[in-house]
Amino acid sequence: MQRRIKDSFEKQGLMKTLNAELVSIEKGVVKISIDFSEGLSQQYGFFHAGVATSIVDSACGYAALTMLPEDMEVLSVEFKINSDDSLLITFYMICLEF
After folding, report:
1. At a CB cut-off of 8 Å and minimum separation 6, what does 11 contact?
2. Which of 28, 40, 58, 59 has the smallest number of CB atoms closer than 10 Å to its CB?
3. What is the pLDDT of residue 91?
4. Cα(92)–Cα(90) distance, rounded to whole angstroms?
């Protein structure tokens, strides 16, 4: 499963554009990191939420994939992130069988 996720991650153009790094893969947990740069900020100088949600989308999708049989794939259909004092992520996925 690790090789499958690493190969998939390397094919993602957006992750390359963001210079994101696949840090670790464990059953149910995938960590992706990204360094802050001005080019990834919004008008107030903070990390742009679009960048953060892109990382969350990939990490959650790969984490879900680690829980599935080899002949299945995942596809994000909806997710919501509330950004306040506590980060709340609601994530719905579709599992696809090949």
Report:
1. none
2. 28
3. 58
4. 7
Q: DSSP readout, 51-86?
A: HHHHHHHHHHHHHHHTTS-TTEEEEEEEEEEEESSS
User: Token pair for residue 33?
Assistant: 């990191």
Mean pLDDT for all residues in the chain: 86
12 vs 20: CA distance, rounded Å:
10
Residue 37 has phi, psi (to 5 degrees) of: -145, 155
Q: Which domains does the chain have, with CATH numbers?
A: 2-97 (3.10.129.10)
30 residue type, one letter: V
Residues facing residue 21 across a β-bridge? 33
